[in-house]
Sequence to fold (97 residues):
Amino acid sequence: MPAPGASAGRLRVPEADEHALIASWHLGFIEDTGIPDDPQTMLRHVERRIARGLIRVWDVSATAPADGARGIVSFAGFGVDDNTARIAPVYTPPALR
Fold:
C-alpha cells in the first residue's frame, strides 16, 4: 500500500471571528462522543483554551479546489506540561469529513 500524500491545508491559530464556530463544533464533539458534561461548562472550558492559545484549526482556504471546502474544516486542542503532551479534542463536523 502506498504511503498517503500530504494533506491540503495548514494548521494555524484561530482568528477571533472563528471562536464561536469552534465553540459550536466543541458542542458537536461532546454530542458525538457522549461526554456526560454540562454544555455551558464545556463552552467555558473551550473559551479558556482558545484564550490560552491551546486550540488550532486546519485551514484549507489556500489549497481548496474551486468546488471544495473553504476556510477551517476542523479543530484540535492540545496541552503540554513538564512530562507529557496531549492532543484532544480533535473534531471535524460530519459535513466536512
Q: What stands out?
A: The mean pLDDT is 88. Helices lie at 19-33, 39-51. DSSP finds two helices and four strands in the chain. The longest helix spans residues 19-33.
